[in-house]
Design a protein that fits this description.
By secondary structure, this protein is α+β, with helices and mostly antiparallel strands. It has three helices and nine strands. The protein folds into two domains: 38 residues, no CATH class; 73 residues, Multidrug-efflux Transporter Regulator, Chain: A, Domain 2 (Orthogonal Bundle). The longest helix has 29 residues.
């Protein structure tokens, strides 16, 4: 890809240490390209691609998370306040997350939701016994 802006709005980038290519789109939102696909949300199915495919130590800023989840940056910070996402770390004056921390946090939340549902089902079964 050349340094000129393409029709997708993404300019040329440099390879990163994970084999992807860091690029900056016209609006200044950092994006990581893995192979030929940008991280994205499949709007028709609600499937979020990107976090699961990234190496655990990949740094993500609020703009990258917002883009992956199809939300705005403010929604990302609201999700942190609601504990739906982990708290970010500061790096060079910017809030960042690692892909691994986001995945681990979501996995813990999912496991807790399953335990809560099982407890609730056990209580309901006991109430009808």
């Amino acid at each position: 890809m050349s340094n000129e802006h393409s029709r997708s709005g993404v300019d040329g980038g440099v390879p990163d240490r994970h084999g992807g290519v860091h690029r900056r789109d016209v609006r200044g939102v950092a994006a990581v390209q893995e192979g030929a696909q940008l991280m994205s949300t499949d709007a028709t199915s609600g499937v979020v691609r990107g976090v699961a495919d990234l190496p655990a130590d990949t740094l993500l800023d609020a703009a990258a998370l917002a883009r992956m989840f199809g939300k705005c940056k403010k929604s990302v910070f609201r999700a942190v306040d609601r504990k739906e996402l982990p708290a970010p770390s500061m790096m060079f004056g910017k809030r960042v997350w690692t892909a691994g921390a986001v995945r681990d946090h979501l996995a813990r939340r999912q496991a807790q939701a399953i335990r809560d549902a099982e407890r609730q089902e056990t209580r309901r079964a006991a109430d009808f016994s």
